[in-house]
């Protein structure tokens, strides 16, 4: 085979092989299935610089029933965590620059703040503090000990059709507790019975990708209740869905990006072949001018 054509073909084959390897890795990285091999990494990025806001309730509002609904604005692609008197009170994903979340309150004054977190769990600035008051409507003073629900995780996820586990902490009130969990995907609420304060684990399997509002409610033996809203994630590309609470956003995946890579590599192969052909033509002309055999060693 001609030397110049050999070089051209080798470069083209190398580019094509690189395309195949990169494309295969792209699909392996995206949403690996059971017994599959996946790769993942994190790219350093600055923490959010824009704070969320609390639009409702207004500062100084008074309540006699819980939970209350907080709404406000937030920067895109963040998780909004609500804190009441410095204690974690729930989390929800920011969607279309806004959020809405149900929050329990302590008896008396509550200082409410919203803090945004990015995908690397880096916190942004706090919102301005909103002060509200909650008067427990229960007249019996023996029921003054409120039930509290919390978790170390504001957001937690798993692949669709794989079990998601979530540790929850319950305290206060009088055991035993009846706990219900609405996972936000139109499936019946899960019921749990807890005989004592402490940590327990809730479990669920989402059938399709999406962001879901998880609402947990606990009631003690005296009827005192507590609420906690969290953000559940089923990994993967989200398609338009009728499931209530599921985001219709379509996050980018490496499998989608691989088509762009394919196009880039295809153009690179054509350019490589064209350059190699041009180089080969010049070599042949040069040898002919020197009286040498154009394809000789």
Protein structure class: alpha+beta
- Strand count: 16
How many structurally independent domains? 2
**CATH level-two architecture of the largest domain:** Sandwich
**CATH superfamily grouping of the largest domain:** Immunoglobulins
The CATH C-level name of the largest domain is Mainly Beta
Per the principal axes of the C-alpha atoms, what is the gross shape? globular
Provide the succession of SSEs.
Answer: HEEEEEEEEEEEEEEEEH
Find the CATH topology of the largest domain. Answer: Immunoglobulin-like
Fraction of residues in β-strands = 25-35%
Radius of gyration: 29 Å
End-to-end span in angstroms? 11 Å
Structure summary:
Mean pLDDT is 78; it is low at 1-9, 11-39, 139-143, 240-244 and 247-259. It is built from two helices and 16 strands.
Structure description:
The chain is α+β, with helices and mostly antiparallel strands. It has 2 domains: 3-30 and 255-288; 62-252, Immunoglobulin-like. Helices cover 21% and strands 34% of the residues. It is built from 2 helices and 16 strands. It has helices at residues 3-29, 254-289, and strands at 62-63, 68-73, 79-84, 87-93, 98-103, 108-117, 123-126, 130-134, 148-150, 155-158, 163-171, 177-182, 190-194, 198-205, 210-220, 225-234. Strands 1, 3, 4, 6, 7 and 8 form a 6-stranded mixed sheet that branches. Strand 3 and strand 4 form a beta hairpin. Helix 1 runs antiparallel to helix 2 (254-289). The longest helix has 36 residues, at 254-289.
């Amino acid at each position: 085979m001609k030397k110049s054509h050999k070089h051209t073909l080798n470069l083209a084959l190398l580019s094509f092989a690189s395309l195949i390897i990169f494309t295969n890795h792209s699909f392996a990285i995206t949403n690996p299935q059971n017994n599959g091999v996946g790769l993942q990494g994190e790219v350093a990025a600055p923490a959010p610089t824009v704070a969320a806001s609390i639009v409702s309730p207004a500062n100084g509002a008074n309540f006699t029933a819980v939970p209350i609904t907080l709404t406000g604005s937030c920067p895109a692609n963040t998780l909004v965590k609500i804190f009441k008197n410095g204690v974690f009170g729930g989390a929800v994903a920011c969607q279309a620059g806004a959020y809405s979340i149900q929050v329990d309150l302590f008896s008396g004054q509550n200082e409410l703040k919203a803090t945004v977190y990015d995908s690397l769990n880096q916190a942004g600035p706090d919102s301005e503090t909103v002060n509200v008051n909650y008067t427990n409507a229960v007249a019996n003073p023996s029921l003054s000990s409120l039930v509290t629900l919390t978790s170390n995780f504001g957001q937690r996820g798993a692949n669709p059709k794989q079990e998601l586990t979530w540790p929850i902490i319950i305290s206060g009130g009088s055991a035993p507790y009846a706990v219900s969990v609405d996972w936000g995907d139109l499936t019946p609420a899960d019921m749990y019975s807890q005989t004592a304060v402490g940590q327990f684990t809730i479990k669920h399997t989402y059938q399709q990708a999406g962001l879901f509002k998880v609402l947990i409610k606990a009631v003690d033996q005296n009827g005192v209740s507590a609420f906690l809203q969290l953000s559940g994630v089923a990994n993967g590309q989200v398609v338009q869905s009728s499931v209530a609470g599921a985001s219709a956003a379509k996050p980018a995946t490496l499998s989608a990006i691989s088509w762009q890579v394919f196009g880039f590599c295809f153009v690179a192969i054509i350019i490589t072949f064209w350059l190699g052909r041009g180089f080969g033509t010049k070599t042949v002309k040069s040898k002919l001018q020197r009286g040498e055999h154009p394809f000789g060693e």
